[in-house]
Amino acid sequence: MKKQLVLGALAVVLSAGSVFAQDKMKMPSPEERTAATIEKMAPLNLKADQAEKVKVTIAAYYNDQHKALEEMRASGNMDREAMKTKGKELSDKRDAELKMILTEEQYKKWLEEIEPTTRPQRGPKPGAN
């Protein structure tokens, strides 16, 4: 009887851990991603008019990205190459808009220092050395 109680308690603990781990993997909303990106852009010392235009551009990018992902999920077509192509298209559009808003120096700093930090970070593959 004691073994059954211990095994039952262990099963509950492992199940709860699994549920919490899944919640961590949830992707942030477009609004959360926009806010995080805008925070990372602080070193650019944007003027007020630039900051507003940049915020609109970044928000549109993340909203479009989210919408495209939802459409692919709904259609059942999770083709990796199609997702990669769509992502490239959206980031090229975003970068073209940012290039018109930012100074040359700010845009260079965006490309080299800030933009790479906005991509999802993945850990090493399990079993990879």
Task: Please render the helix and strand layout as text.
Layout: H1 2-24, H2 30-40, H3 48-75, H4 80-101, H5 104-114
Uncertain spans = none
Alpha-carbon distance between the termini? 44 Å
Biggest beta sheet attributes: none
Tell me, rounded to a whole number, the average pLDDT: 82
Helix content: over 70%
> Tally the helices: what do you get?
5
What is Rg?
21 Å
- The count of DSSP E runs of length 2 or more, i.e. the number of strands, is 0
Anisotropy-based shape: elongated
Order of helices and strands: HHHHH
- Strand proportion, as a percent range, falls in under 5%
Structural class estimated from helices and strands: mainly alpha
Provide an overview of this structure.
With 129 residues, this protein is mainly alpha-helical. The protein has a domain of 72 residues. It has 5 helices and no strands. Helix 2 packs antiparallel against helix 3. The longest helix is centred in the middle third of the chain and has 28 residues. The relative contact order is 0.10.
Features:
mainly alpha
What is this structure, in a nutshell?
The chain contains 5 helices and no strands.
